[in-house]
Batch of 3 targets.
Target 1
Amino acid sequence: MALMITDECINCDVCEPECPNDAISMGVEIYQIDPDKCTECVGHFNEPQCQQVCPVECIPLNPDRVESKDALMQKYLALQAAKKDA
């Protein structure tokens, strides 16, 4: 599943640069994660990097975006292919 940022976010700016898929951006009030780009760092790292650096632990799994590790790997491969084509 993709990750999400809750309203406990303090806009500390540490998660955005850690995302290897550029899935994190500033929203209207807090940072947000694009679920179409979030692979939970599958393909890049063993653990989601944004969760590792978040000082307030406001980045849980998104229950509305249930995805298997295989599905996350397929998303990673598609994102990498799109980067090469760009």
Target 2
Amino acid sequence: MADSWVNSAERIGADLHLDLSGAGSRRAALMGALRDAVRSGRLAPGTRLPPYRSLAADLGVARNTVADAYAELVAEGWLTARQGSGTRVAERAGPPAPGRVPKKGPARTHGPRHDLRQGTPDASSFPRAEWAAAYRRALQAAPNEAFGPGDPQGRVELREALTEYLARARGVRTEPDRIVICSGFAHALRILFDGRVLRGPLAVESYGLGFHREILTAAGVRTLPLTLDEHGARVGELRTGASRARAALLTPAHQFPTGGPLHAERRTAAVDWARARSGLIVEDDYDGEFRYDRRPVGAVQGLDPERVVYVGSVSKSLSPALRLGWMVLPQGLVGDVVAAKGEREAWASVPDQLALADFLVSGAYDRHVRRMRQRYRGRRDRLVEALAERAPGVAVTGIAAGLHAVLRLPPGTERSVVKAAAWGGVALDGLAEFRHPEATMPHTDGLVVGYSTPSDHAYGAALDALCGVLPPD
């Protein structure tokens, strides 16, 4: 690779001309030319390289080619990428010394330095004192029979407390005898689609948790993806492309992970489809309490309790460690669900159920949710402000809600940014990880960033590290 030079008087990412002639891919040629320039001293330590877009335009290559090359050279130690500083030649650039070859892949023995993965609340914010007080009160008030074999439907104290809370906070219409306690949404899926309650095919959103699809596949359920847009799932496809579906799994309050709510007209259309088809909607209300720009929209279940299975849990509002969730069922499904669950409670701890009932009735749950709603809103605002200042080419999409945000990336950059983040000790997910394998809607490059996971004192450093691996323009 010949003839590389950089204007060393302007160490701010000025013109960088590279000859990419020769055998191999453009990416390999670019990496070789940059290594040669560093090795020979033509790119001195600390030199700032041009942004992806500028160098790609100069060389006549795709932007993701430059992004991938930069990410690989950062991983190899030739370059560094830090927030506010762009991509630069490392102070001690070059291959590692003998005996210190880095492991291939992003795995790290002690885990990531900055955890921005979606799906978990701030563990340091668990209300220990209030929960302990609720637990003591619940144990003292519990009848003796509560410590015998558990009722698979769940403790009546919790079902009564949920009836009041869900009606008040989420607009759910139910009675205690239509609620079945479970250990979370995944457990609910296993019960509902074990072959005795519901059968496929099942319409699902084109983006969602792969873990949930794996549960359904293991149960022999075919999933049919629905296209998404800014108004949520295009439920009109239930009458066309997904017309074979017997049920539809939706996240209407806050689509996971893309972040849009299901439009009011589509909510009504989904219920109308279920009525006409004698079908069912499975409503995953995974973070319905956390809407920051206005009051949360009520549950779809309120439109027709006989056509919607409403599923919720405390995994986002309190902690996934509690393993407590609930299904609000059409009356005709209660017996089948209880039978599928088994004769004895094998999942949800009875003392934990009693404690949650007290936590709800005492108002401690409402106080905790309000407190966390304010905290997470502040974190989301900090994320938006940091991106506007340090990575203005990266937009936050979706509504102001939930425990994560989707960052829209320039086309073709997702894979390289995720790789660079992993090498930089930042744990996060690319949007592609959540795409249904049969989805037909256009691909969008993005990151799914969980702003709820770090503790308060760690969040600022996590934001700095995130901005350091994002495309600067």
Target 3
Amino acid sequence: MQDPELLHEGLGLMALGMGVVFVFLAILVFLLTLMSGVIRRFQPAPAPVAPGGSAKPASPAKGQGDETLAVISAAVHRYRSKRRR
């Protein structure tokens, strides 16, 4: 084969590959949009929120928070002491 023929063959393969990828991505987007619509249709309605209600997340028990803080502090101290060597 000559150089122009190889170039032509390479460009044809490149176009074919890019076309296949484009078609695959288009199908993927279509299917994801379809699945999203199906999920929205069958998803239960959100529960109404009482007006004036406090939406504060429940905090962990005081003892558990202190213990967690102590464990994290010890881990940071150990990491820093090993790192200095």
